[in-house]
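Key result, reporting period 2: structure in, sequence out.
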């Protein structure tokens, strides 16, 4: 699609994600890969150095990483899905799981949702599994998957349970504003969404999957030939962790998906 349209917005509410093809230039993706290769001991030219299923690299800010997240095209879709003025531009692309072809299991391929705000008191803030998520998705507007390399079916594409954001909204509702830890929420999410169909986040370098923050997803083993580069940042709500979606009366597609799930309208696309 050139720009997100009514049909694509409806798909997002129903399925929990939409794909923006060539959301940022392939040349920018190549610049990002080059900088990431420089931070790894593995050599792009020598598969013998690809000794682990996944290498995780930390936050990279500015330069091509910032440019990738802030194209005019993406800004327009952020406005459409979340609301103009309600999200914070990113200066980075979060962290990077670089996946290599391997016969070994990756060890991080469980079904889960991402948390969005730290525990209070923050004594265990360093533990990502202690971070929390609530029915208002406090702090987080979207989960985003930036394809920094071409990703085919064998190249460890992220697995997505289509429509699972509906199940997660219903699972989170009883816990109100307090919410659950990432681990607690993910266990409930995995169970509630087990019958959902699975889609693979395949595509070309420069494609971006914009996902509902409640979408259940998982990594998988890499059976292809070349390393897969992906960024998975959140889009934060303006006001950081103090800001929340309106799961009842909100009008954005992200909020409408939650509202419809809680009202039972999600049964139509279960």
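The corresponding designed sequence is given below.
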């Amino acid at each position: 699609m050139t720009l997100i349209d009514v049909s694509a917005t409806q798909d997002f509410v129903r399925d929990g994600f939409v794909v923006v093809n060539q959301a940022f230039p392939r040349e920018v993706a190549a610049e990002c890969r080059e900088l990431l290769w420089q931070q790894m001991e593995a050599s792009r030219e020598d598969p013998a150095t690809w000794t682990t299923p996944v290498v995780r690299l930390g936050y990279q800010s500015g330069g091509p990483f910032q440019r990738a997240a802030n194209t005019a095209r993406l800004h327009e879709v952020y406005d459409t899905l979340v609301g103009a003025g309600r999200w914070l531009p990113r200066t980075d692309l979060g962290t990077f799981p670089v996946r290599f072809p391997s016969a070994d299991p990756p060890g991080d391929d469980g079904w889960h949702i991402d948390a969005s705000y730290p525990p209070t008191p923050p004594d265990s803030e360093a533990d990502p599994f202690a971070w929390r998520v609530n029915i208002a998705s406090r702090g987080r507007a979207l989960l985003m998957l930036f394809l920094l390399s071409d990703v085919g079916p064998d190249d460890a594409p992220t697995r997505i349970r289509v429509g699972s954001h509906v199940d997660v909204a219903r699972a989170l509702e009883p816990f109100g504003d307090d919410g659950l830890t990432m681990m607690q929420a993910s266990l409930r999410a995995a169970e509630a969404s087990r019958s959902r169909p699975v889609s693979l986040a395949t595509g070309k370098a420069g494609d971006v999957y914009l996902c509902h923050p409640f979408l259940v997803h998982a990594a998988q083993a890499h059976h292809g030939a070349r390393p897969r580069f992906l960024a998975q940042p959140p889009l934060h709500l303006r006001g950081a962790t103090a800001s929340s979606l309106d799961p009842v009366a909100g009008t954005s597609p992200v909020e409408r998906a939650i509202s419809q799930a809680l009202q039972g309208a999600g049964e139509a696309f279960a």
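The first helix runs from residue 6 to 15. The chain has one domain: 6-269. This case is discussed further under Risks and Mitigation.
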